[in-house]
Amino acid sequence: MFYSSTTAGTGSRLFTSGSLQRLPTSSASTILHDISSSKGVAKVILKKGKTQLFRDGGSPMVYSGAVDRIIGRPPPKTGDVVLVADGTQTPFAWGFYNSSSMFCVRLMMQLKHESS
Questions:
Q1: InterPro entries in the record, alphabetically (predicted)?
Q2: Which of 28, 48, 25, 21 is nearest to 114 (CA)?
Q3: What is 3-110's CATH topology?
């Protein structure tokens, strides 16, 4: 199943296998978390304060120094898809994991948040 999202109006849009759902950002984050948990996808948790470096047009390359911990059994292997979350474990992106690079995640899709 392919997942992608963009911001529109008052919430986020989450595309799932060709169907379109408009969801509040918090609902979309919950869905991403549920998907990762049910499919055994590892979650890369960033250190507090590092999320803004990679969110909303920032760098798509997450360097290993920005990572607080990786949650998942078994641990991700190079090339695995991982869920990337901020320091409060709120998911904000999907990426490809690379265990042999100083850039341990290449972001491929972000859940856009709304500014308040």
A1: PUA, PUA-like_sf, PUA_sf, RlmI-like_PUA
A2: 25
A3: 2.30.130
Supply φ then ψ for residue 34, to 5 degrees.
Answer: -65, -40
Dist. CA 67–CA 105, nearest whole Å: 10
Tokens (6 digits) for 49: 């304060």
Q: How far apart are CA 116 and CA 113, in angstroms?
A: 9
| Higher-pLDDT residue of 31, 85 | 85
Please tell me what DSSP assigns to residue 64: G
Give 56 or 104, the one with higher predicted confidence: 104
pLDDT tens readout for residues 19-70 = 334 445 556 666 666 666 666 789 999 999 999 999 877 899 999 999 999 9
Q: Where are the alpha helices (DSSP H) in the chain?
A: 25-39
Q: How many residues does the chain have?
A: 116
3, 103 contact by CB (below 8 A): no
